[in-house]
Amino acid sequence: xxxxxxxxxxxxxxxxxxxxxxxxxxxxxxxxxxxxxxxxxxxxxxxxxxxxxxxxxxxxxxxxxxxxxxxxxxxxxxxxxxxxxxxxxxxxxxxxxxxxxxxxxxxxxxxxxxxxxxxxxxxxxxxxxxxxxxxxxxxxxxxxxxxxxxxxxxxxxxxxxxxxxxxxxxxxxxxxxxx
Length: 179
Ligand SMILES: [Zn+2]
Known about the structure:
Elements: E1 6-7, H1 13-35, E2 42-46, E3 52-57, H2 70-82, E4 93-98, H3 102-111, E5 115-120, H4 122-129, H5 139-145, E6 149-152, H6 156-168
Parallel strand pairs: 4-5, 5-6
Antiparallel strand pairs: 1-6, 2-3, 2-4
Helix pairs in contact: 1-6, 2-3, 4-6
């Protein structure tokens, strides 16, 4: 087990193993999504029995919407599938190939998701791609206070490679003008 895993709660080995399997699979599928025009991020929501509820990639460019990050798209799809704006009674976990940005942290909080598992940390995403992940003061503890478990840095090397390939292929890194 990687020593780099970080969490805001004691790590439960079986949950982490499941997260490693899911995130590896998301990283592998991501190439297909990218080839079809998605941004380099993919997320999935599962229930506590391991059933897939929703899965979606980043579609900011393909759908002309700056909110369409993988996490936001997946939450929207899960809420639609379950016919609710509040996922909290369903005990759902969100798995995502990279650490959520500041917008998605808000989106996750309002959705009622109970746990977040992510792959590549934001500092690596920014270093490899140049995407701006936003300022995120102490979100591990803020999530903990709200009963949301976080496990991060899962299968980081695999995820870094996917992001490096995205850049090597000359794919778009979008961000608003900062001047
Ligand atoms: Zn985001």
